[in-house]
Protein: Phospholipid/glycerol acyltransferase domain-containing protein
Amino acid sequence: MESELKDLNSKQLKSTASSDDGGSAKDDRPLLKPDAADNIQELEKKFAPYVRNDVYGTMGRGELPLAEKFLIGIAMVTLLPIRVVLAMTVLVIYYLICRVCTLFSAPNRGEDEQEDYAHMGGWRRSVVVVTGRFLSRVMLFVLGFYWITETFRILDVQEKSENEAKNQSKDEDEAKDQDEESGRPGAIISNHVSYLDILYHMSSSFPSFVAKRSVAKLPLVGLISKCLGCVYVQRESKSSDFKGVSGVVTERVREAHRDKSAPMMMLFPEGTTTNGDYLLPFKTGAFLARAPVLPVILRYPYQRFSPAWDSISGARHVFFLLCQFVNHIEVTSLPVYHPSQQEKDDPKLYAENVRRLMASEVWISSFTKAELLTSN
Structure:
């Protein structure tokens, strides 16, 4: 890209020099349209959710202050090697636990080459879940997330009275159905900021995720993902394979809603990571099951390096994260959202209403609340 820009600049300089000298040479440089300023503003607005605003600058390649370079130098020789060793130790320990628990146990095989160990029963499943939640929290501690601020929203008094009035107007059968629905959501809905989101949700509720099919073949992580009950998708493919995976996800959400022993699905309806300051429009895949969902909002406050994985490479992100002495995460869990009949019939409406609720409950940014909510 840099070479292309250099070539472009050199060509422009040559054309400018020739026009100055002879005046007859034709200038083929593209002219800016009258509405170019508006287009630039639209582009800035469009890509604002992916811009890094921390000390490290765009793509983590900005010019660092001398004090920041000094801190990184200290962390490289002290904190970085310790964290790498501890993180690998935790990963290997959990892999061995999963290996022992899955011995002599055949994975649950479904359509589209899906297989998992999440439907194991008895002591095997209990050990996988309990140790998985504990070691996920240990991993976050190793990465510098020593404290996690969690806020659990409850219904306001006015909302409670309105719900009670509605329940009284229903007959007994509908009230029973509502009581059954209120017991367990079918999926957890969360904004997506970083791969660290997965570690938090593993430590909190140990749900199943949607992951690339290649993840199942990775050393160590592959078996762990199968114990989580991940649904694998070939994201480069837009054929019937994608539709098949969507059906698997919908069925898993319904199963989790009906059966308390089934693993709950964890879905990121934005479909990609952002810098955490914006909430993108939701895709409807998480809402096709017409089941209640649990909205959860994650934020990563920072002073130096932002843990958001937006426009920075994976290796550079991990390096800077490990070199930061303390990292922070804030979690807001909202009440279970029960869709109305209109929302059940219209997944787009269901998705947009959940998104509006999440944006209104937590101050993500003035742009998100004022403008992004009305955009599609």
About this structure: Residues 54-155+184-236+243-370 form one domain. The mean pLDDT is 78. The two ends are 32 Å apart (CA to CA).
